[in-house]
Amino acid sequence: MSEYPTQFDRDALLKCARGELFGPGNAQLPEPPMLMMDRITDISGDGGAHGKGHVVAEFDITPDLWFFDCHFPGNPIMPGCLGLDGLWQLTGFNLGWRGWKGRGYALGVGEVKLTGMVRPDRKQLTYYVDFTKAVQTRRLTMGVADGRVEADGETIYLVKDMKVALSES
Q1: What range defines the domain where residue 69 resides?
Q2: 2 assigned to some structural domain
Q3: Which residues neighbour 83 within 8 Å (Cβ) at sequence distance 6 or greater?
């Protein structure tokens, strides 16, 4: 389905952040420290729970990550919004991986449930994005997906109906 590989290491993700993977003006990941994953271990346009595409990625947790010092002093916790942003980042990445053109924009999310926390003693987050819809028409390029974040194998975030669009303007 795609001319791109189905796995990406950190160097490839940084290439995407610089606009070098999908080309200028197309889907881009943020640069560190806002890049919320270290590698993508699997991606497709027709796999996942609904057969409409998926992404699986990992983020290594270390006690020296930037957000632990400021959220909250004396009680370090990764902000839940950063986990959500990681899911949005991966949703947009999948659209670019499909070869679809335009810059990515998060449009919203239907439901978010936070059932656990990421503290400095965690080792790894695993992100799962399962598309429920991927649309490309003359006027609209958009992905809708459900997501899950696991910390060391424990589900801590559940997300329904994330929406990400690509726009060429």
Answers
A1: 10-167
A2: no
A3: 36, 118, 125, 127, 149, 156, 157
**Short-list 94, 102, 95, 107, CA closest to 139:** 102
For residue 139, the model assigns a pLDDT of: 87
Q: Which of 39, 71, 148, 160 is catalytic?
A: 71
pLDDT at 168: 87
pTM for the whole structure: 0.97
Q: Is 71 a catalytic residue?
A: yes
Tracing tokens 């400021």 back to the chain, one arrives at 70
Residue 144 near residue 132, CB atoms below 8 Å: yes
Structural domain tally of the chain? Answer: 1
For residue 122, tell me if it sits in a domain.
yes
CB 8 within 8 A of CB 39: yes
The residue to which tokens 């919320």 are assigned: 36
Buried b vs exposed e over 119-134: b needs ≥16 C-beta within 10 Å?
A: eeebeebbbbbbbbeb
Q: Is position 3 within any domain? A: no
User: CA angle 86-41-45, nearest 5°?
Assistant: 80
The set of residues, in sequence order, having a beta carbon less than 8 Å from that of 95 and lying 6+ positions away, is 27, 104, 134, 141, 143, 164, 166
